[in-house]
Design brief:
301 residues, alpha/beta, Rossmann fold, ten-stranded mixed sheet, two-stranded antiparallel ribbon, 8 helices, globular, binds 5-O-phosphono-beta-D-ribofuranosylamine
Length: 301
């Protein structure tokens, strides 16, 4: 697919047979215009290069439509915090249940985050996070293309979609695939991930889910907790942005520990995304990102 076409415009069509020329997103099937995409039954339809609309204008309509119909306060470029900081557009990447995604979405709705989720990206179309997004009328994009998920899109098309939706930040929330270099280069210092241990301990390829908590318990570590870090080309090695300490109890099972860490993940991720959207992240000369306190602008963590 030619990215030029993606950037020039989208229009919806019913389920198509030729995934080579089109990419897929989870949207209602009965719609023929962007303004009627949401709030109806869902089935696979595609976005397709279309000369009839400006993609930029259309993507705005899609986002507004999705948020309005799901009860979210619609975003607007002119809406700011009173200091000229506009609301940010967020893409969330999920492979599983999506409890972090839900808590981020809820925080956007209640106004704790100065931004809106405009798309959910997943490598598993049937995962809980994707179901939640569909239920809320949020666009779902399948990435990457694999044997199991042949409707998935390529890295270049993913970048085009995110650009088309004017995404400011990419938030990984339990997304179990390596992020392609095309996306990392397109979004410098704008992709963050949450990991359920105090990195650099218990990170890296294969360290995900319950494996992390089992390894923490087996190590005898007395403290663990979530880490939020910027994303580079490798697993869990990007610059650390925030951490929160959680105690490991002597008789913890991995499940009990995971639940305790997850509660803290939900709080920490929302706080950090709020800081990102309010432009309170600063970069030290040595390349370490730090967060300016909202309450006390002279204080950083
Ligand atoms: C979380 O533990 C997160 O740290 C890790 O994957 C898990 C996702 O959980 N990256 P959920 O899908 O948000 O419930």
């Amino acid at each position: 697919m030619e990215v030029q076409h993606l950037l020039s415009g989208f229009c919806s069509t019913p389920m198509v047979q030729n995934p080579k020329t089109q990419f897929f997103a989870r949207l209602p099937s009965s719609s023929s215009t962007a303004s009627t995409y949401f709030g109806q039954s869902h089935k696979w339809v595609s976005f397709k290069a279309c000369p009839c609309n400006s993609q930029r204008a259309l993507s705005r309509i899609e986002c507004r439509s999705s948020t309005e119909r799901s009860g979210v306060i619609a975003s607007s470029d002119s809406e700011d915090l009173g200091n000229g900081i506009r609301r940010k557009k967020l893409a969330v990447f999920v492979s599983g249940g999506g409890s972090n995604f839900r808590s981020i979405h809820e925080a956007c709705i209640r106004g704790s985050i100065h931004g809106d989720i405009v798309v959910l990206v997943t490598n598993k179309q049937g995962c809980g996070g994707a179901d939640y997004a569909r239920d809320k009328g949020l666009p779902v994009v399948l990435f990457p293309k694999t044997k199991k998920e042949p409707d998935g899109i390529s890295p270049i098309d993913l970048v085009a979609v995110l650009r088309g939706l004017e995404v400011d930040f990419v938030l990984l929330a339990g997304y179990l695939q390596l992020i392609p270099v095309e996306l990392i280069q397109a979004y410098p210092r704008s992709i963050v991930n949450i990991h359920p241990s105090l990195l650099p301990a218990f990170g890296g390829k294969g360290n995900y889910g319950m494996r992390v908590h089992k390894a923490v318990i087996a190590s005898g570590a007395r403290y663990t907790g979530p880490t939020i870090h910027f994303v580079d080309e490798h697993y869990d090695t990007g610059r650390i942005l925030a951490q929160r300490v959680v105690p490991v109890h002597a008789n913890d099972t991995a499940e009990e520990l995971a639940a305790r860490v997850l509660r803290e993940e939900h709080r920490l991720y929302v706080e950090v995304i709020a800081a990102l959207c309010e432009e309170r992240i600063f970069w030290r000369e040595d390349g370490v990102p730090i967060i300016r306190s909202k309450e006390n602008p002279n204080e950083y963590s």
